[in-house]
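Supplementary Methods S3. Input chains for the assembly prediction are listed below.
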Amino acid sequence: MNQYIGKAMPRYDAQGHVTGKVRYVDDIKVPGMKCVKVLRSPVHKGVIKNLDFSKAMTVPGVVGFVTAQDIPGKNAYGRFQDMPVLAPENRVRYRGEPIAAVVAADEDTALEALSLVSLDIEEQTPVFDMFEAMKPDAPLVRHDSKSNVWVHYPPDITEVTMVKGRVDEGMAQADQVIHGRYSTGVQDHAPMETNVSVAYRDEMDRLVIHTVSQTIYAHLGMLCAILAMPMSQIRYIGGRVGGAFGGKNDIHTDHIAALAVLKFGHPVKYRLSREEDLQFTTKRGAFVLDFKTGVKNDGRLTACRIDIWHDTGAYAGMSPYGLEKCAMFAPGPYDFPHVKVTARTIFTNRPISSSMRGFSVINGQIASEIHMNRVAEALGMDPWELRFANAWRDGDQGVTGYKVRGAGALEAMKKAAELAGIKLPDKLMSMSSRGRQAS
Amino acid sequence: MTHILSFQLNGAPVQALVKPSDSLLDVLREKLDVTSPKRGCDSGDCGACTVLLDGTAVRACLTCALTVEGKQVVTVEGLSREGELQPLQEAFMAHGGSQCGFCTSGMLVSATALLAKNPHPQRQEIAQEMSGNLCRCGCYEEITQAILDTARKGE
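Predicted structure tokens for the full assembly:
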């Protein structure tokens, strides 16, 4: 073992990278392979009144179209099984929602065919702002739901609530209550490799899918449900991913490529252009976070009340799951005797939000850390000192009641100060995460 | 309407039937099955398709295929000679200059062009010359170290 421990080892696949020999999914070519492209909603919300492929079918090289009617299994997938593969019941809920897929000889032919599809959509009123979407008379993003707020716990609980102690009591003990509201925006992962699938039937008639998935077993299960096929009939080949960062935690191309093979039998490649990948894949969703922090004049925190609103776009993606992480960690690594967090996931007619690096925890951290600076400013206290006084020590309790073990915030801050060339007072440098008494 | 295009690819003569609208990247990837130049953006922004054209680093996706008639094109496949890795390739491996690897071919080609022009670049010059090559995993520091190391060893 000593030959490995403490030594930098080359990546197992680095030689392939530096010689250009690694085969990514877009590098795979199969004889007779056709191109798949997708017709997407040009409006943010609407009902499809008429969809006519007859003119598009006259383009030489067009094989045909796939629609929701061609799905043998469920027209739904994702962690919460609420994302349609192709527009269901003729409804679209965000600009870019897939409506139908064309299979053609090559990309130029596919794009020409798409331009000739006659699509008649009755546009409906969309809603883009979370707070507008929560009003009682707001237009519903999902016509079959009671409101635009995701039901976290069926049948009707829409809020994720985490409580420790009694916030009112803690606020009453405070000398000051500092309020701040923060928002974080939408972000795309933009991996160097865009989403792409190659799919075909093998010699045993099994469906082969070369995927860029970063969640391959979960996606295999979802594909079985969409395609109404047993796992034994799908060879799902992955492992070579050109960057993902959470953006390939949701299926973007595999399901549609597979449906094209099932319907027409040709091998296919479905690759998103950079423009398509940026516009239509899942995003890190927007957040609004509201912090009220009670604090003594000596800098000891007494209570924190946090409200979180998360915009998931038209479908849930992994947002409700990320929201729970955000709620749990939003108070930051600080010892609040009393804390309450309330969080909700809200539908708007925006592209789907889902997972991205840090998985919504960092959205809470951004707000929490900016707010700590604001609290320090209100107290006229050095922000390092405020953080050191309140940082978790072993045995402190988080908002869900867990006991902190192996706390390291103080040590991390000391190291950060050292690397930044900041000389902290001895009082702070002598503090330890091993206990508050020791400080 | 197609034309017969002839050029030197990694030291060997090649021919392909191309349309006037084909880019050099289309010809390399789709017609000649040279897949190391990657289609990251298809608009000249990411650098993943960088190749050497008569020794100069160019974006294959922005290079009209017909303009390379009679010229020398080198991709990563042409960097290692007789199976021997070049010092730059070794340095990328040693310094962890790749994570997902999708940008690596373009990075190596741009770095090769940089070292040919400027065998002892400063950090700032490397940052400047490599600024057209994006890496989303975040290997910029490791790649810079690999280039500095190669320059040092080349002395």
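Residues 16 and 22 of chain A are 5 Å apart (CA to CA). The interface with chain B takes residues 8, 10-11, 13-24, 26-27, 29, 189-194, 241-245, 273-274 of chain A (CB under 8 Å).
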